[in-house]
Amino acid sequence: MSTVETRWGSGANAEAIAAWDGPLYDRFVRFREIVTTGLGAHGEAALELVPPRTGQRVLDVGCGFGDTTQRIAELVGPTGEAMGVDAAARFIETARAEAAEAGVANARFEVADVQTTSFDERFDLAFSRMGTMFFANPVPAMRNVRQALVPGGRLVMVVWRRRIDNEWLYRAQEIVEGIVPRPDEYEEPTCGPGPFSMADADTTSAILLGAGFADVSLRRCDIPIVIGRDLDEAVDLVMAMGPAGEILRLAGDRAAHLHGQVDAALREGLAEFAGPDGVRAPASTWIVTAVAAG
Ligand SMILES: C[S@@+](CC[C@H](N)C(=O)[O-])C[C@H]1O[C@@H](n2cnc3c(N)ncnc32)[C@H](O)[C@@H]1O
After folding, report:
1. What distance in angstroms lies between residue 272's CA and the mean position of ligand 1's atoms?
2. How distant is the alpha carbon of residue 96 from its chain centre?
3. % the chain with pLDDT above 90
4. Beta bridge partners of 48
5. Which of 65, 165, 268, 289 is deepest in the core (most CB within 10 A)?
6. % of residues, the chain, pLDDT over 70
7. 268 C-alpha vs ligand 1 centroid, how far in Å?
C-alpha cells in the first residue's frame, strides 16, 4: 500500500479519487447518455476484437456506472461472471443498484484503487473502457491487473489516441486555454494523468511490458461520436468534462467572468461538427490488447 499523504486523503491516487468520486461523478451523471453512447461504439469494437466467451470470468477496470460490466455479464452468460471495479464509491453504488434493478445476477462490483489493490481472485480477461488513464503510477496499476489474470489471460482496453485525431476535445482545450489562465494552485482535486496519458503507442506498450504483459498490440479505432443533440449541449459538455472542462473546473470562480467569452468561442469552434442529427465529431481510440505472461 502506498503511504502518500495528500490533503485529499492517503494513497497515491487520493486526489484523483476525490475528483472522480466528487465533481466528476456529478458531471458524468449529467452527461451520462452522451458519454456512454459515444464511448459505447468504441467499447463494443473492443468486445468484438476480444470477445468474452461463455463461462469466462472478466474484470472490468474503472467500470464507472457499470454498463460495460452488465454487457460483459450478458456475453459470458450465467456460467460466467463479470466484476466491475472502480476507485470511486459513488460509481460503484450506482452500478450495484442498476445491475440489481436490471436483474443481472452474474455481475459484481467492488470499490478498488487498481493501483493499490492486489486481487485475490483470478480472471480470464481484463477489459477497460477509458478506465486506465488516470493512475498516478500506471506500471504498478497494470501489474495488479496482470496479476489478477490467469496465465495466458488477455487484456483489452480502450484509450484515447492523440489529441489531434480527437479534434473536438483538442480544439475545445486550445480555445479554453487561450481565454482562461491556468491557475498555479488548485482548490479542486485534479483527475490524475488524464485522458491522453495512453495516447502514445510506445509509452503505452512500455507500460504494459513493464507490468509483465506480452504480445502487446494497438489497433486504431475511428468511430465518430455525437457530442450533443445540438450546439448548446455540445458546448455544455466540453465546458464540463474532458481537458477543457478540467481547466474551467480547476479555475473555479476565478474564471466565472470569462464563461460567456468561452461559450461563444466554443460555439464557433465546434460549429463545423453540427448537423441535422446533432453535433457529430471524429473520435479516435486505441484498442490495446495484451496477454498476461505466465
Ligand atoms: C472516463 S471514466 C470511464 C468509466 C467507464 N469505464 C465508462 O466507459 O463509462 C474513468 C473511470 O476510471 C475510474 N478510476 C480512476 N482512477 C482509478 C483507479 N485508480 N482505480 C480504479 N478506477 C479508477 C474513475 O472513477 C472513472 O469511473
Report:
1. 30
2. 19
3. 82
4. none
5. 65
6. 99
7. 31
